[in-house]
Amino acid sequence: MSQRKTLQQQLAATEAKAAKLREALTKRARSEDAHRKIVIAVAVLAETNEDREFAERIRGVLRKRVTRPHDMAVLSEWLSTT
User: Fold this and answer.
1) Does residue 55 contact residue 48 with C-beta atoms inside 8 Å?
2) What is the pTM of this model?
3) Is 1 a residue whose pLDDT tops 60?
4) Which three-class secondary structure string do you get for the chain?
5) Angstrom distance (rounded) from CA 81 to CA 45
6) Cα separation of the two ends of the chain
7) Which CA distances in Å does 71 have to 3, 6, 12, 17, 20?
8) C-alpha distances in angstroms, 13 versus 6, 17, 46, 78, 82?
9) For residues 19 and 74, what is the distance between their CA atoms, to the nearest angstrom?
10) Is the pLDDT of residue 5 over 90?
11) 49/43 Cα distance (integer angstroms)
12) CA geometry: angle 76, 78, 82, nearest 5 deg
């Protein structure tokens, strides 16, 4: 019976380690996603500085897709520039 408890403890420790690894994978995926979004945003903003038609298209997309008041408040100055 003592050995069984030890096996149960080992199983519990292994499951806890697996849970931590899953959490680390999830954290890494979120970090990579955030980084990807930043890179895309930087590239898009740079292009809006060089291409007025592209900038207007992006403004239209943002007006259509961004719906939360807090998010619109952050974008309002940029959206109003010509």
Assistant:
1) yes
2) 0.72
3) no
4) CHHHHHHHHHHHHHHHHHHHHHHHHHHHHHHHHHHHHHHHHHHHHHHHHHCHHHHHHHHHHHHHHCCCHHHHHHHHHHHHCC
5) 13
6) 77
7) 58, 53, 44, 38, 33
8) 10, 6, 50, 52, 59
9) 37
10) no
11) 10
12) 115
pLDDT of 20 over the 70 cut: yes
Is the distance from CB of 23 to CB of 37 less than 8 angstroms? no
| pLDDT at residue 18 greater than cutoff 90 | yes
Is the CB of residue 32 less than 8 Å from the CB of residue 25? Answer: no
Residue whose entry in the numeric block shows the structure tokens 């050995």: 3
**Tens digit of each residue's pLDDT (9 = 90 or more) over 23-78:** 999 999 999 999 999 999 999 999 999 999 999 999 999 999 999 999 999 999 99
